[in-house]
Amino acid sequence: MINRRTFGTAMALGAGAAAVSLTGPQISPALAAPRRGERAPTLPEVTPGTHPSFDRIRHVTAGLLDVGYAEAGPAHGPVVICLHGWPYDIHSFADVAPLLASRGYRVIVPYLRGHGTTRFRSSATFRNAQQSAVALDIVALMDALRIHRAVLAGFDWGTRTADIIAALWPERVKALVSVSGYLITDVEAQQEPLSPQAEHTWWYPYYFATERGRRAMEDETKRRELCRLVWRTVSPTWDFDDATFARTAEAFENPDYADIVIHNYRWRLGLADGERRYDRYEEQLAARPVITVPTITLDAERDPFTAPGNGSTYRDRFTGAYEHRILAGIGHNLPREAPAAFARAVVDVDHF
To answer: Using a CB cutoff of 8 Å and minimum separation of 24, what contacts does 2-11 make?
Structure first.
């Protein structure tokens, strides 16, 4: 198990990390998040898109990054960190955050490296998007904000990131909401072909493996067209409008966006190298470590990436208190398409 002292010494990512003074609205006792074991409060239904955006983006120096993040809820409430995927951004949680904030949670929603207002502190830093590097970004963010433990909740890249932190640093994770289950990548296992239909669904990583795909991601117009196509195909029932896509597409204008996206998918296919300083973490992750923290896994019925078997393919990776849920009629961008169900899972798992 890797402890905080080992992490800080080995990675040297915390130099210069600055904590910020955060304030938030006070809430009445009736809205406060209940203690573990108490009955979870009722959450209201919310129409997806009710809250189109966040009022303010904050910044904090954390490890290799200057992290841009949204925050909602009381400054001293129990913390929930919501982690987005690709090709999405923090707006996937624009409806989730106020729901959780209304129940007393302090909600942190960071832009991942290469997205939105998050920036690398040094131009010399390799634009690396291997899984352990992204996970360490969030650990560094927690340290910078002086958050020792939090509920982690994510989808897509965010699920993988949350799973890794829960597996390697369980003392930092109070509970976990994991869309699509166990997504820790085993690069060696990735070399085995899937069924033709599954390979067809994963068309864009193979596109990104080519220089043609890289050039598409570097071109603003083609990048937006490609990302919008992915939105439509992986969320077939989500009737999003132009304004919704445009708000998220602003996050694609980060100067490191193309490099981060391309490296992530090439690394996962074994076509790009990571960095040696992350080898120790990747070796542990290749062993498919179990996750012991309380977990709710969510599967979206209309997501083409949802594994068959009602969660059975990854059930053995979760050894703590556990529940699995399927959301009918919902696609890949689950927190945006079903914000009340996602928030409900966060509140419920916090009381396992």
So the answer is: 2/168, 2/169, 2/280, 2/281, 2/284, 3/171, 4/143, 4/169, 7/136, 7/139, 7/169, 10/277, 10/280, 11/63, 11/136, 11/277
40-61 pLDDT, tens per residue?
Answer: 667 888 999 999 999 999 999 9
User: Cα-flanking dihedrals φ and ψ of residue 188, to 5°?
Assistant: -65, -45
Q: How far is the C-alpha of 256 from the C-alpha of 117, rounded, in Å?
A: 11
Q: CA torsion angle for 173, 131, 123, 214 (degrees, to 10)?
A: -140
For residue 212 the two structure tokens come to: 């043609």
Distance, in Å, from the CA atom of 99 to the CA atom of 94, rounded to the nearest integer, reads 9
119-120/65-72 β-pairing = antiparallel
Q: Look at the alpha carbons of 267, 185, 135, 212 in this order and tell me if their dihedral is positive or negative.
A: positive
- What CA–CA distance (Å, rounded) separates 197 from 171? 39
Phi, psi of 177 (to 5 degrees): -115, 120
Q: Rounded to an integer, what distance in angstroms lies between the CA atom of residue 118 and that of residue 111?
A: 6
Q: Give the model confidence (pLDDT) of 227-286 as tens digits.
A: 999 999 999 999 999 999 999 999 999 999 999 999 999 999 999 999 999 999 999 999
φ/ψ of residue 291, rounded to 5: -110, 120
CB atoms < 10 A from the CB of 164, how many? Answer: 27
d(CA 136, CA 104) in angstroms, rounded, equals 27
Contact 268, 205 (CB under 8 A): yes
